[in-house]
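ARCHIVE CARD
Drawer: 12
Card no.: 0347
Subject: one protein chain, sequence and derived structure
Cross-reference: see card 0346
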Amino acid sequence: MEMEFQQVLLRVQESLSGDEVQDMVFLCSDLLSSKDLSTVTSGRQLFHLLEKRDLLSSEDSSLLLELLRIMKRNNLIRNLHFDAFTQTNDTATPRISSYRQLLYEVSESICDQDLKNIKFLLIKTLPRRKLEKDMTLLQLFLEMEKEDLLAEDNLDALQKMIASIHPGLEKRIVQYKTECFGGMVIAQESHSSASSTPDLLSLPTSVSSVGTMEDQVDRLSLTEGVSEISEDQSHNLDSSSNLPLAENPEIQQYEMKGDRRGVCVIINNYDFTAGGMPKREGTDIDKESLEAVFQWLGFEVLSEQNCDSVRMLQVLRDLAARDHRLADCVVCCVLSHGCVDGVFGVDGKTVTFRELLKTLSPLQCSSLYSKPKLFFIQACRGTNNQRAVFRQTFPGDEDTLVSDAAVPRDSIPEAADYLLAMSTVPHYVSYREKDKGTWFMQSLCDNLQLLVPRGIDLLSILTQVNADVSKKTDRSGLRKQMPQPEFTLTKRVVFPPPKTRPPLQ
């Protein structure tokens, strides 16, 4: 057993970059002395120190698992099969403080230019030699701690500094202070192992405007398994709503006059038993709603259940092999768990967003040239759902809200006429109620029914979906969600009003 565990540690070390080793050193700075950590340059040295302090062993590898999850190296955890060394993991006390995680997540959200600006702000506070060019933000944090400028209960200097560099990120710090010192500490749950610290996620750093960024920060997504959802009042649209006009002479519309609207494929992944992940309770509600709405819109709807990674791509290749010359557009809805690169098949293997979209490129399907290819993805874009923590719920609220943890690092292809409507912004989870379906897909279906008959274009409808989902919350008022469409559409997508009544009320 000991030999096998040492082999696992060796493989972890070989998989870590130098920066990742230093990230681990920072996260462990409350567990080991600064003198010991100052000499660490490799994973092997760090693991040896942790073993000497009885913080890591073949009987309990929970600390290493905790570190890897914080650093979002879940693929490494899956590949190395830690199960044999985690007998005590389900009851293990988390060792990395929420404060240390906050600083790490802040550093992950800061770009190189932000780091230069932070160093400039500190030039009269820290010695110039401490601000040398290659010093990372985490190293700066350690120096600030030495100078008593930063501590778990002293974040004012950091907050003031971040506010001038990254105003949206300041709200992260405010939220942390509220949670940890305002009498409310948020916990989370995943399907793997346990930990009780809050998951303070990294912030999206590439959004269209500061205003949008601050809105997204307000709409935090922490994780699943919390409280019941408050009454949603977002669908009370009246005639005075400032909805976009259907006619806009400056922007052309895609033609929607074909003999048939097109094909809508729905990939509905529910049972992830083979992939070692929880079943997606409530996803069939989304599937049924999507089927009804897109049939109402005139689409031929094809549903595929529980697709592994190979089958998911094959479904789209089969779609690309069809003759779409008489169709106006094509739609693909994917309901699944997600990961850092894309979405999971039920076998636990990843299909990247780029792979999904490329299957319908004009090179693969010439009959879709210049026609809109619309993708609606229900999956998280962050991995915090996979972090192991103890669960905290409100009385009577168990098992009502869950999430589908993912982040597409690769954007949509450069080819024109694509829409990728994601259920959440990068680095955040999205929510699914077991008895009602997901916030995003249910709002999408509701707004398609409400606004298509009024002649509203699809991007404006998705804007209303953003507004509706952003108003949803759990009873604590802290768990929020913000969808995000990405597109290379060259015209407006306006579906002809169906002649039949809406399928859902």
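Annotation on reverse: The longest helix spans residues 167-181. Residues 2-91 form a domain with the Death Domain, Fas fold (CATH 1.10.533.10).
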